[in-house]
Amino acid sequence: xRRSTIxxxxxxxxxxxxxxxxxxxxxxxxxxxKKGVITQxxxxxALKEAGQAEEKPKATPPAKDADGDNTVDLGKGxxxxxxxxxxxxxxxxxxxxxxxxxxxxxxxxAFNNAYGTIGDKKNYPIISDSSINPRQFKEDISEFDVRRAxxxxxxxxxxxxxxxxxxxxxxxxxxxxxPTTTRSTxxxxxxxxxxxxxxxxxxxxxxxxxxxxxxxxxxxxLLQFVDRGFVAEAFVPNTIDRRDQGFTIHSDEKKYPFxxxxxxxxxxxxxxxxxxxxxxxxANELMYVxxxxxxxxxxxxYPEGDLVYSETPQVAVGASYGYNAGLQTNxxxxxxxxxxxxxxxxxxxxxxxxxxxxxxxxxxxxxxFVFKYRGFSLQGEGFVRNVNTHDHSKQIGNxxxxxxxxxxxxxxGTLEVVGRWSAMDPDxxxxxxxxxxxxxxxxxxxxxxxxxxxxxxxVVTTHLSAVDTLSGAVTLIENxxxxxxxxxx
Length: 489
Fold this sequence. Notes:
mainly beta, Porin, 16-stranded antiparallel β-barrel, two-stranded antiparallel sheet, 7 helices
């Protein structure tokens, strides 16, 4: 056994040694406590009558205000407390909440020989000096990452219907497949205002996740797996990032069973405008994104897994469409020079086949569903991307993809087993270029999604045709084990 794997198992054992005592002895009773079905006093009395009461007295829980938040009332409408973040509030005029999210990850990947000799130049290439180079792995990889480090400021201003959200990130740039774009300094990630005065027509303005798809719209803190699947990552409407700058009119999903969202964006990803790309003749183009959803039974929401152990079936469906016109995909543009940030981001999402296709118009359609009931969850999404090249000498087909994932809580609210299958055809005009991934895992929830330990193991297979390699068809295989610890406070 490799020493790196042994080290990971030692860390895992230590984390579980801390996690298991921290969880309730009986997960079902712990869940009843969380849902308020029984009180802590009733539970303690039951233990006492059974002769199992703890010798060490429990600490008195902090006083709670009418909203159920751990709060100190300073008078004159000023409050200070903790509610999924440290916050301060002045009457109904202003609230500031500060949150921190940390995700630490260990990845151990083993690659077949083709990854070292041929590599992947078509889907996840490396962009260097305006050239496209194959991503190769000549040896196996073991690495620790601070996968996500996030600082969030959120709340409301002037009234509770005018909310704001600002997030900064400083994440490690991973080296295995699905790498992130290079980030060496702290970066503005989200910055938006959401005006909620009209429930059926909220207005969101700024930089944020576009209302497209299910897995791309949900926070990475609320995932069932260590990370999003490669299919959902690839089919973001701008092909660059799940975030963009613009505005969205949308209904309040907490109040209505049927909802919509329609947004207009730059279509250039985060922290960039079209002018910032120095691309010719398309600075006046915009991206349009629309989404409709229907809660057919209950309100399953976007957080993955049935963590609350739903007593009645929860079912929702959705459909999305995004159109991004005039996107420059060339790694070099005569007389201008394309943005390295954009082409690198396109490559990092598995969309390398779009590079050097000149200016393209991209239309992406997605459908999704989710089902939750008594600890079981099932969700899936399917996508089709239409690519129209302005230069008709270019030959790039459309793309299709889907994923299906499921989970079940062996111990309600605590221990979950999960599995996911993903497949993508990145170019429908080409043969033998299918990408697939099968992943299974186990999640240990210490305090819901905001404090959890996740393991997954998967096999990622990339087929390259003779046209892709200019030598012969090959199959790239990665066997990947990941361990991730998440804490949000």
